[in-house]
Amino acid sequence: MHIDKDLVAASATPLVLGILADGESYGYAILKRVNELSGGRMQWTDGMLYPLLHRLERLGQVTSSWQSGDSGRRRKHYAITDSGRAALAERRTQWAVVAEALGQVWRSVERPPDAAKGWA
């Protein structure tokens, strides 16, 4: 399934902040987690993730540090900050409003035309 790039862009920040709210992580692991959370329907690339992480770092919503992994390879790990947690809470509130509005639209579309007008 193809997901429109506008939807991917709109959901990227809350997804990344939400993943990091569970604990620090590095790029490849974040990409893998997005894939898992979406049941394989969202296939992010490095070219999409790293500019977002760098922007979140500039905004003070994440921090980064270099760490050695199990293989001894150094990886840049990202962690959410208090500012990032506040931004995540705000995005969650915003998404709840959008999800509710969309839910109402989807429900009205699913009803027979006469029922949607109150003539049923």
**Annotation field: number of helices:** 5
**Count of individual beta strands:** 3
Helix-strand pattern: HEHHEEHH
Order of the strands making up the biggest sheet: 1-3-2
Profile the largest sheet: 3 strands, antiparallel
Distance between the terminal alpha carbons, to the nearest Å?
A: 36 Å
| Outline | elongated
Computed CA radius of gyration, to the nearest angstrom: 18 Å
Average pLDDT confidence is: 92
Helical residues, percent? 55-70%
Q: What is the structural class?
A: alpha+beta
Low-confidence stretches: none
Taken as a percent bin, the fraction of beta residues is 5-15%
Give a quick summary of the entry.
The chain is an alpha+beta fold and 120 residues long.
What report would you give on this structure?
- Helices cover 62% and strands 13% of the residues.
- It starts with a helix and ends with a helix.
- The chain has helices spanning 5-21, 27-37, 46-58, 82-110, 113-116; strands at residues 25-26, 62-68, 74-80.
- α1 packs across α4.
- β2 and β3 (74-80) form a beta hairpin.
- It contains five helices and three strands.
- A three-stranded antiparallel sheet has the order 1-3-2.
- It is an alpha+beta fold and 120 residues long.
- The relative contact order is 0.13.
